[in-house]
Amino acid sequence: MIINALKETGLWRAPAEVTMEMNPGTVDFDKLCQYQEMGIDRVSFGVQSLNDKEVKTIGRLHTASEALQAIEQASKAGFERISADLIYGLPTQTLATFKDTLAAIVASAISHLSVYGLTVEEETPLATLLANGSLVLPSEEEAEMMYDHTISYLEERGLHRYEISNFARTGQESLHNLVYWHYLPYYGFGSAACSYDGKRRMTNAEDIESYIRGAAPTIEQLPSRTSLAEFMFLGLRTSEGIDLSVAKDRFGVDVMAMFGQKIEKYINREMLSFDSAENNLKLTKLGMKFGNEIFELFL
């Protein structure tokens, strides 16, 4: 229904992409062919790991072989834009097993890869198992080595880093994610989905039946200070950084005048880089590693 409406209004893939996120354990070749024929031009698989023990530990249903098969089938179905997600710092994971996963996924047909450090949500089965000692996470030092290996290994193999957690072959960057990181307007369809119009954030009803009945979304009017903060820390996630003249145009703020002393501190620590000629502010390689510390400057 949504796809038909977008096609009828001329908004389908005009000018961007259509990405479908998939579970590697539930998709098959026939479905992939159907999605491709519908006009979906990009698929993303939640692989997380290519070690069966690690995948099982976090409650995922697929196996490593199923994940690699799904990627291969997507390629055979005609998809040229294939992405996968990985997580480092998983229970039972070692640097060696993570290296194996990374090597195998890069050798597959993917053209884009997202790599995230594990976040343990409260009141989840994983949190309970960690709390009672049934599972143990890798040490901070081991997780850092996994992070460092990710950065060097992917760059060496032609997947350039264009955002803190995202890597792509040239021309394969995620266009819809760049909309979020550039803090541009977007529409969200479905229960609990969010939309942003440049000044307000609208969140649809979480309850599916309420959403279907047409329940009005919750509207959050964003103060200009909040909008500026979100613009800054989202834009700094990208390797290109932020054109501060855009911040001036959109929010009427001279970022260097407002935050200059704090920014200078991180420039001196080689975590931020400022090009005065281009009026561009961006994270360095070191800054990418400790981005959350820098983002707090603008909150």
TrEMBL record:
The protein's name: Oxygen-independent coproporphyrinogen-III oxidase-like protein YqeR
InterPro entries given in the database record: Coproporphyrinogen-III_oxidase, Elp3/MiaA/NifB-like_rSAM, HemN_C, rSAM, rSAM_sf
Domain Radical SAM core: 1-160
Gene3D superfamilies: 3.30.750.200
Keyword Oxidoreductase in annotation: yes
Its EC number(s): 1.3.99.-
Keyword terms, alphabetized: Oxidoreductase
Annotated GO biological process: porphyrin-containing compound biosynthetic process
GO terms for cellular component: cytoplasm
Enzyme class: oxidoreductase
GO molecular function: 4 iron, 4 sulfur cluster binding; oxidoreductase activity
SMART domains in the record: Elp3 (SM00729)
